[in-house]
Design goal:
- By secondary structure, this protein is an all-alpha fold.
- It folds into 2 domains: 1-60; 61-115.
- 77% of the residues lie in helices and 0% in strands.
- The protein has helices at residues 14-27, 31-38, 42-59, 63-111.
């Protein structure tokens, strides 16, 4: 009768996986050799490698998309600056007109005879 040995599964953190994959790239060794060295099945290393490449694709930034968004924001910013400028001018005109109207009303009161 054969005895079966139960092995405990080793869980590796993301940083440990990255470290191991970096060792694969810098060490110039094959996945099989690296797997034997660390006691990991080669398919597991292939899976980690695939998962990390997919993750970096998700995290990668589309520069063209960002530049388009930047241009849109610049245009919107310029439009808003013009709108604020126009409102400021309108506000000054209204203040001036209000001051003139108040002066005219005061002068009308002074000119009108008292009863």
């Amino acid at each position: 009768m054969q005895t079966t040995e139960t092995t405990r599964r080793a869980y590796r953190t993301k940083s440990q996986k990255i470290e191991l994959l970096n060792e694969l790239q810098s060490g110039g060794m094959t996945i099989s050799i690296l797997a034997r060295k660390h006691g990991i099945h080669p398919v597991t290393i292939h899976k980690w490698k695939r998962d990390m490449s997919q993750e970096t694709k998700k995290d990668s930034v589309d520069v063209h998309e960002i530049l388009q968004e930047l241009e849109k924001l610049k245009e919107e910013n310029n439009h808003l600056k013009k709108a604020v400028g126009n409102l400021a001018i309108t506000n000054e005109i209204l203040k001036t007109a209000n001051d003139v109207l108040k002066k005219n009303q005061r002068s009308e009161k002074l000119k009108s005879p008292k009863k």
